[in-house]
Design goal:
By secondary structure, the protein is an alpha+beta fold. The protein has a single domain (5-133), classed as Hotdog Thioesterase (Thiol Ester Dehydrase, Chain A), CATH 3.10.129. Helix content is 22%, strand content 36%. Strand 4 (89-98) and strand 5 (101-113) form a beta hairpin.
Length: 140
């Protein structure tokens, strides 16, 4: 069984449009913050991955569905888990909720690349550390 990584955040004035509704592009920032915090829980960071493995994690694609609007001062929860893995990439499902209502669903394809932008194999240590966040259907 997989585990979920949870990240909480509050909607600030700077996140909203004139009507107090979260501007759509800010959801991508929220998802990125949750992924960065997930890395932190396994003792890694983007800087450590670059320095130790010479790799970067980039977003290849993001399929996002906006279901409802979040508003100023809403307390949001982002749930993330790894849906599937290949040798050079993984797919992460992420859900943003407010009061148990789904605001956003996203499927993000993340790829490990070297500094020249060429795909590289996911380092074994990272693969092993992310295992708790894998769902049951892993593709290797």
């Amino acid at each position: 069984m997989h585990e979920n990584f949870f990240h909480n955040l509050k909607v600030y004035y700077e996140d909203t449009d004139a009507g107090g509704v979260v501007y759509y592009a800010n959801y991508l920032k929220y998802l990125e913050r949750a992924r960065t915090e997930a890395l932190s829980t396994i003792g890694l960071s983007n800087v450590k991955i670059k320095d130790k493995y010479g790799a970067l994690i980039i977003v290849k694609s993001c399929n996002i569905e906006f279901k409802k609007s979040a508003k100023l001062e809403d307390e949001l929860k982002i749930r993330s888990f790894v849906k599937s893995v290949t040798k050079t990439s993984f797919f992460m499902n992420q859900f943003i909720t407010h009061d148990d209502n789904t605001i956003v669903e996203a499927l993000v394809h993340l790829v490990f690349v070297n500094e020249k932008g060429k795909p590289v194999k996911v380092p074994e240590t990272i693969f092993d550390n992310f295992k708790p966040y894998f769902c049951d259907s892993i593709k290797l």
